[in-house]
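Input chain follows. Return structure tokens only.
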Amino acid sequence: MKLKSLLILVCFGGLIAWGASCKHEPDGLVNNPPGNNPPPTGGEQPCSADTVYFQNQILPLLISSCAKSNCHDAATRQDGIELTSYATIMATGDVRPGNPNGSDLYEVLNETDPSKIMPRPPSTPLTAAEKQLIFRWIQQGAKNNACNDCDSSQFTFSATIQPLVNSNCRGCHNPNFQSAGLDLSTYNNIRSIALNGKFMGTITHAAGFPAMPRGAAKLSDCRIAQVRKWIEAGAPNN
């Protein structure tokens, strides 16, 4: 496995706070050209449980966990690796469609060498389910696909709000790395920012609030409506 791209995911969750940088060892990097970077396919169709969708599941996970300042965001591009969009991930992330075990983007998540473990402690590692998502996405051809997975009439905490926070916020706001002093891994902490206005302020990119998710497009109108309705209902733990 190429050492240079072993460290693709060094910024999962917390190295920025300690002033660490993404140091990559010299080695070759196989680039997969993005081609004409077609728009996502299937964005209006219902989601299938048998399919992993890049725009809905993979991109939010990588942006939250890795595409951060001083590492693999658009401005820094450590060692030429940028993980902010389908085009840049395919061009620089050594993703080999149909071959997850030969793709550094997946292999690095399962490294056992203490000097190469990613995400590097004290960052929070990806869960087994999140690793499996990346595996299945590559196995299914690493497509730039999407589906319609949002219903604004549904806004329970367990089925809607917590998964949204986990996908878009957990990489920066977890027990090991509390960006801005926030740990959003618990209901009580999420409820707190919901009731004091910070949650809606950040996701709507309102004046005076930091735009979140950082480095990514604003959440869809449907997702924002779900959060708003949940808060208006009293932010219940339902």
